[in-house]
Write a structure and sequence with these properties.
The protein is mainly α. Helix content is 84%, strand content 0%. The chain has three helices and no strands. It is elongated, with a radius of gyration of 17 Å.
């Protein structure tokens, strides 16, 4: 059962670290300022697209991050 404990600990670290890294409250003005003239519906569509792209970026970093860093010698 040691593997499950490590998985749980890793999940807590990842989900605990994501909000400060993504900083949704701090980044909100960077989304709201350029979309000030948009309707709520179009702003919601754009926010959903940003969230989906961000999810793919995080998944790519999760699965390919070590290889990409090794490629650059980091």
């Amino acid at each position: 059962m040691a593997g499950a404990s490590h998985m749980r600990q890793g999940a807590l670290i990842v989900f605990g670290a994501l909000p400060p890294i993504a900083n949704p409250l701090g980044n909100a003005p960077f989304f709201l300022a350029p979309t000030a003239g948009e309707t709520d519906a179009s702003r919601n569509i754009l926010a959903r697209k940003v969230a989906v792209n961000g999810r793919f970026l995080l998944l790519a970093a999760l699965f390919l991050g070590d290889d990409i860093l090794a490629l650059f010698g980091v």
